Amino acid sequence: MQVMELLLNGAVQGVGFRPLVYRVAHQMGLGGAVWNEPGGVRVRLVGPAHRVAEFSARLRAECAPPARIDSLRTLSIATTDHAEPFRIVESMARGTRDALVMPDLATCPACLRELFDPRNRRFRYPFINCTHCGPRFSIITGIPYDRPQTTMSAFTLCAECKAEYENPEDRRFHAQPNACPQCGPQVELLDAQGARLGGRDWAIRQAVIHLREGKIVAVKGIGGFHLLCNARNAEAVAELRRRKQREEKPLAVMVPDLETAARLAEVSRDEEDLLATPAAPIVLLRKRRDADIAEAVAPNNPYIGLVLPYSPIHHLLLRALELPLVATSGNLSDEPICIDERDAVRRLAGVADLFLVHNRPIVRPLDDSVARIALGKPMLLRRARGYAPLALPLPVETQPLLALGPHLKNTVALAIRDRVVISQHLGDLDTLESRNAFEQSLADLQTLYGERPNVWLADNHPDYASSLFARGQGHDPIRVQHHHAHIAAVMAEHGLNDTVLGFAWDGTGLGEDGTLWGGELLRATRDRYIRIGHLSGFHLPGGESAIRKPIMAAFGALHAAFPEQMPALAIERLGLDRETAHNLQTMIEKKINSPFTTSAGRWFDVVAALCGICRESRYEGMAAQRLEHAMDANLFAWPYPFDISPVEGVIVYELKPMLNALLADLAAGVPPARIATRFHLTLVDIIVRTADAHQGLPIALGGGCFQNQFLLDTAVARLREADHTVYWPQRVPPNDGGISLGQIFVAAGRKP
Ligand SMILES: [Zn+2]
Ligand SMILES: [Zn+2]
Ligand SMILES: [Zn+2]
Q: What is the Å distance from ligand 3's center to 352 Cα?
């Protein structure tokens, strides 16, 4: 008889994988053992050597989601004359630590049936789960994933739960968060001051009553607190906005089921599948005109973000209410979400009327992920709960690397060999809370995966909180140019090791020449790039703080194109008073806080402000969104003219002719819908004409501008018509959430 060792990598821990191995081995009459290791799952097989191939094939064939085999290696072969029955042994904390920690998974259909089955011992128990569902990353404190290394360690399994936990034939075999009403966590309802009102099912039923009455309830879920209220109650939604000081940014809505989703929005088959995946992201959908929902949920917005209930608590609330609920992050502005009840009562004081909490601790904040279907495939816009920390494969082996990410929409990343683990979305690093979450996440990844890289990577902006942190720690990180990182992220995701033509279009990032880039054309390989072109630029009065003021960008663009007509033109076209216009002119001419920018995002601002669509932006990217929504994709329209002029060997896409034509359109009373459409088509034209001039190079589209559905869809369609190969971000956001991956890939090619 032979002894064979197999090492399996992938999503193989905490998903019922060892019972599958056990079953297949038993059925094939093979002896041996299976156990979890930090490096994955190891199987020792004892039996005839020729059966190992059949065994592997059966494992691959019978492995069903959420389990996934990424690699299967046969490690060693010896002989033995000892037959042994197949068994599952306790985890061994040895070997390398690149096992995949699983993300949190939405309640599975089997658990959902039990949750509402009065004969089941977990009837209405808010913490029901099994190996196919439940919390993972939000409760794990160490690898390997075993109960003592989760926040369930404080709860001792009762006899019945223990029997399930130890029975390889049971759906709850080694389900680490396994629990029941006798031995597991419980919910409690607190008043606005944090005083206990009651617990268990009473708390859930009271929360339902208060939500129906229009109250705002903070609910502790999987990755943190949500603020919930009745999405049909205009007063409740307005009150939530007032208390949260969130004027216009769209709010996500949790719906009881797919049927309700289809009554609020147009939902395709792909979008249905995305809503119902175990990751349960918020999915951006086209809102129905007759959607029965308060306008204030997503004001002036043709889209709405919907999410299905993903924890038993949500199911209990939504099943009873039969209402769509606003489900927005339990935080203020762009801070990370609250995860701890005392913290929530403090930080959400004056926002929530009641707190529905529980005593299963959350280790790290995990916001809801946000996704949409782009060109028939899911595209993540915010990667957090349900996706983080699933590792992505890198198309190159690397020394250990730690990427500190960007400043806005920060994520950090850790690379080990040919894998990269990207943290969950951590938010903008402007607040103390976000910076704390950032530092914790860095420490957390290194502890979990047992790797402390000496090589750190950071954005080339010296004043970003991440750069300051590195210096404070005595590190001198490798500086990665922001837009190179955007393109490198696309390359990493799609396994591209050769030269690409990259369009890196976003809000801003610091260029190598000290100006603010963002409308860049890069000829890039993994570890280097040449800036071969960019949109024409202008001086932006107010600098990076003008990002919330599209009118500043419009002033700057007019000033650059028609200096002799300023400030009269700005007064006429932007409705500025004489004094403001003169001040802005002085700022630009005396070079006071008016950096030069070539950002595509700022050009969206220019057009939005000139059309009167958005003069002041209330959240990041608002002007660009408004302009996209103003557009009429069915209009028959032409792009605006632009010039292509090489300046010192760099192509400049000169947009002065566009501005000229746009002003003529405005003077002729052309409606904003047509102007917005023509502007979008101009950008598409720039991409396609550039690609045509660089035949043979694959195209990579990266940066926040490619969240724009029309820009992405139309550019990709036109590029494909012209036989170009084009890549865009899918599993990692196109916005700055993907920068940490790009930073890793840029440095992955370098020798230590
Ligand atoms: Zn389950
Ligand atoms: Zn129990
Ligand atoms: Zn960016």
A: 34
